[in-house]
Structure formats: C-alpha cells, structure tokens
C-alpha cells in the first residue's frame, strides 16, 4: 500500500511541474497555436485524473484483500479451537446412518416375524379381558368358601406351632455358638403370605427371617444401590455389607491403606486394635481377601449351626427335622411319625442401618430373577414394611373388606392355571404388588365386601396393563406416597422406581409364556370357578364371603 501512495504522489508532482501555465516565462509571448497546446494539455490532464482514479481503486482493492486475509486467519484459528469440526460430525452421522441401514435390513430379513408375533400378542392382550365374564356373587361366595377358607382355616394353628419351635431352635443355636467368635442371632420375624393372611396354596409354609450380627468389636456397615451415583439396572435392589470394627469410621482409617513404616504408629489404632488378617476375616463369613460379607459363607454357617442346635434339643420332640431344599439355607421340614409334615423357612438376614429393611442371604427365585453376579451382593427385602402396610390399611377399610379375598382368588386361579400349562414367570409377589398399588389408589369405601367382583376386575385390568407395558413398579421403592406411620426410609422413597417386569424386556420367551398363561387364566376363569363350585349356596352360605380370613 505505501508503494501505491508513492506512485500517486509522483504522478501529481510530475503533472504540476510539467504544466506550462503554472510557471510562465517573463516577457514571453504566446504563440499562435496556443489554443491547440491548451487543448492537448486538457486531454493530458484528463488522462492523469483517470490514472489517479485507477491507482486509488487498486489501493482500495489491496486493502480489501488484506482485510479478507486477516479474517480468514481468524476463522482458521477459531476452527482449530473447536473440539468437534463439522467434517467429524458428518463422518459420525454417515457411520450411524450405515449402522441403522444394516440393522433395518437385518430386521426385515429375519426379525419381522418375531415382532409381528409380539404385536399380535399385544393386540390379543388388549382384548383378552373384554371377553371375561366373572361368575355372579353367589358363585364367587361358594367358591371362596370351598376353595379359600377351607385351605386357610388352620393357618393360625400352624403359625403358632412353627413360631414356638423356631424360638426353641434359635435359643439352642445361641447356646452352641461361641459368642466371642460366631455370629449372634436375634429373634425371628414372621413375614410373607402366612402372616399377611392371604396364602391359599398348600403346603402352608411359614417364612421367618432371622437377623444376625457379628461378634464384638465388629459391626456391619451396608451400602445399597440407591446410595451410589450410578448403578447398572441389574444391580438395582441389591447392596453390599462390609464387616468393620465398631470404632472404625465409615471410610476406614488411613493406617489401613498406607504403609506407615516400622518406626511410625497410628495414634487412633494400637497394634492390638488392628483389623484381623484375611484368614480371620473369612471366619467372619467374608469373601476371600475382602471385608464384604459372603452370602454363600453365611449359608454354610447357618446350616451347620441349625444342625448343631437340633442335635441338642431333638430329644425333646417326637418328630424329625430335616433340610427341605439343598439350595436354601433354612428351608426346613418337620416330619411327624403319623406321616404328616410341616414346612417352614428360616432365612438369615442383616438389618439395613436402623430400618426394618433387611439384606436377605437367599431370596426365592422366579423365572425372571437371575442369581446375583457376586455372592457379596445381597437382595434388599421390604417384607416387614409390606406386612405392616397391609395390617395398617386394613384398619381403615370397611369391615370384612374384600382386598385379601381378591388377592386370594387370583392367586388360586393363577396357581391352578400353572398346574395345567406349566410354570409362569408371574409370581404371587407380583399379584400382591398389584393389590398394594390399588389399595393406595382407590378410596377405602370401594373395598367393601359387596364390591368383590368390581375389585377383581380392577386387579385383572391393572395386571393386564402392566404386562402390556412390561412395567410393574415396586410398591415401596421410589414411592413418595408411603404413609408416614410406617417410618419408611426416605432414601428408598427418593430412589428411582424399580420395575419388577424389566426382565421381560430381555427375556422374550419368558414374556410370551407368561402372557399365554395369563390369557389362558382369563379364558378359564369361569370354568375353573365352576369346577370347584358344586352347587349354588343358599342365602345363609353366601355370608361366608364376608368372613374375615384368619
């Protein structure tokens, strides 16, 4: 640009110097052809003006080019600073498009039949309940009297017998164990359908959980899935239990994680107050080389302890005691000399902090629930809260409410259908969960005994909708409407809801089998009820429906 300005100045100076009229000579005379010269000078002046304009345009063009170059440089620097340039996004989009196209072709070639079948199932499922006609009130009353009350009439007597024997057995267990080294067991707690008064299937099995704790100076510190920032879906509902010293903080002292050296001592822990070596931690039923409680170790310990305690008190009883199931630590059976038997479950559990939620060592598995990936993963059960909720809300319902009758009838029908078509992944716990949701959703007066048929329809519709959506939320986990009287832990209320039907998304065969069984149960409802109804009862017998189950 300076060179262009210099050229313009040079042309202007030359024009001024060479102009004849600017420096006239003294006493000079104008020649005759002065007019021609003046005309030529004007032409020359016009040419100079045009040359000046051309040079100014050239300078302006150079300045514009310089500005464009600076702007391009700034744009390149800005593009370099961006983490993901557009060409990378374009490449990623192309890869995603190709993957979607390959999946679509594979879907059209091989999977369309399976999806079509699933859509057909959903279409039938949506219409299945519409064709169901429940028997009238008299038939339901007769059915309930013969098939439900006839089975559950002696539940109270069996509960009393089992509880008395379990207390004696656990007292003997405490006496045979070493209090300085072995786990300490507490009083048993009755849970499940036998203690919620709705069990209908024989044999009538009592479920008792037995809390235990480590010997002094040790304690259990638990961590549930909802206390972690992120957890895999298959880990939901589980937690871990760490065996620690009672005087050790939750994070553990740094002396256990750092080499202090031979000449350095921890001011908090003396040499006599250090964590036991790994071999002795295994004596505390921990997984090898860890401080985490091992469910398999607990199972072995509990079975051995039960055997020792029975050997101590067996002379007092006129029956035999044996383990009923090999894969369950406390599945026991009492065998009388007459040939009759009573089955019950004693399952060791660990209390979750200061709540009535418990980590259970072995949980009854269904077709949906897979075994935990590690024996240090413990399932969290809310059975105590479930029993407490049912008993609490029963006091607010009308006299002789039909909520348990509905659950018993559906449980009975589903059990009979499974005996005909094979086992299903739908369990009695799922049925109870449906009842709990409806108990919270519907007004109390809707559960009067005369509304039995309507509430049966509600439960079947709710279950049908849950199967269709493959979604049945756990009643307590993630439920912020749990009554305050239960003192349910806030951490579980604020947790993400737990979908009990999530495995159906992964296991299509189990889902299809469950849906088929549900369809068959709906179609056979009237036939099953009529099969167990010999005659239509009289008016006096219809009142049996309003009898509160024991």
Automatic annotation (TrEMBL):
Gene3D superfamilies, per the entry: 1.10.1410.40, 3.30.460.90
Domain Mab-21-like HhH/H2TH-like: 405-478
Keywords: Cell membrane, Coiled coil, Glycoprotein, Membrane, Nucleus, Signal, Transmembrane, Transmembrane helix
GO cellular component: nuclear outer membrane; plasma membrane
Predominant localisation class: membrane
Nucleus recorded as keyword: yes
Family (UniProt): Belongs to the ITPRIP family.
Domain of life: Eukaryota
Protein name per Swiss-Prot or TrEMBL: Inositol 1,4,5-trisphosphate receptor-interacting protein
Membrane topology: Single-pass type I membrane protein
GO molecular function: protein kinase inhibitor activity
Annotated coiled-coil segments of the chain: 45-79
Function: Enhances Ca(2+)-mediated inhibition of inositol 1,4,5-triphosphate receptor (ITPR) Ca(2+) release.
Native organism: Gopherus agassizii
Range of residues in the leader sequence: 1-24
Cellular compartment(s): Cell membrane; Nucleus outer membrane
